[in-house]
Amino acid sequence: MFTPVRHASLHSLIIRPLLHAIFSGQIPGGTHLVEQDLAAQFQVSRAPVREALREIASMGLVELRPNRGTVVLPFNPDSLLGIYHVRIALESEAARLASKAIPSTEVAACEKSCRELLNGPRDLAWSIRASKLDEEFHETVATWAGVARIAIEIRRYNQLAHLLEEEVRQIHGYRHTEQLDTINQHLAVIDALKQGNGDEAARAMREHLLHAASLSIASLFPKT
User: What gap in Å lies between CA 188 and CA 92, rounded to an integer?
Assistant: First the structure.
């Protein structure tokens, strides 16, 4: 199922394909993950596999059961929404804190990038750039929040978000209308940052992530 990995930070390269397999349903809820079997598939020792499983467990996607191994938890709309609730808590506070610290030049650069995209042609290159800008925007806010632990946790949960977005793209491809909505939502956060309004920046970030959550749920778990 999995290809071998070769890298100093082996556990980080194991996490990504495991998460993809969980999100796609290739590894369904209730599956027992055996360290020895995974180590053989990745062609690594059990140590990086164990470390990867512990990190995935900290995200609430698998459960480490003493003397019983690791069990994949059901991935459903509630668990997906839970990921976004954590993001909302972290990133709303990051936006609030960043509003008091982010330089005006940094805010202006973010705004310029967003407005250039709004005026650009809607082609594949545009979509790829919009996706990259989304990552850069959230990283900028996390960095200027000024709290290392918040930034670390935001990056960890954004890793999940990016993998979820890849799953959505595999199903639907890039969707320009939704990407335009994202850019405009970023601009709402940026406007609050320009004003130094922490409460409004937090509110705008919350609305942005709630919208992203609803899109992800509708895409990955369509009603039948």
Answer: 13
Coil, strand, or helix at residue 33?
A: strand
Residue 136: other Cβ atoms inside 10 A: 13
Can you state the angle between helices 176-195 and 124-144, rounded to 10 degrees?
30
Q: For residue 156, give both structure tokens.
A: 């960890």
Q: Which domains does the chain have, with CATH numbers?
A: 10-72 (1.10.10.10), 77-220 (1.20.120.530)
Closest C-alpha to 49, from 35, 66, 63, 68: 35
Strands (E), 23-156: 32-33, 62-65, 69-72
Strands (E), 42-132: 62-65, 69-72
118 Cβ contact partners less than 8 Å away, ≥ 6 residues apart? 180, 183, 184
Q: Rounded CA gap, 211 and 135, in Å?
A: 16
Task: Walk across the sheet containing 62-65 and list its strands.
Answer: 32-33, 69-72, 62-65
Query: CA-CA distance, 208 to 189, in Å (whole number)?
Result: 9
| Contacts (Cβ under 8 Å, ≥6 apart) of 130 | 117, 179, 182, 183
Stretch 128-149: mean pLDDT, rounded?
96
The pLDDT of residue 224 is: 45
Burial of residue 78, with CB atoms counted within 10 A of its CB: 0-12 exposed, 13-18 middle, 19 or more buried:
exposed
Lowest-confidence region among 2-11, 31-40, 78-87, 92-101: 2-11
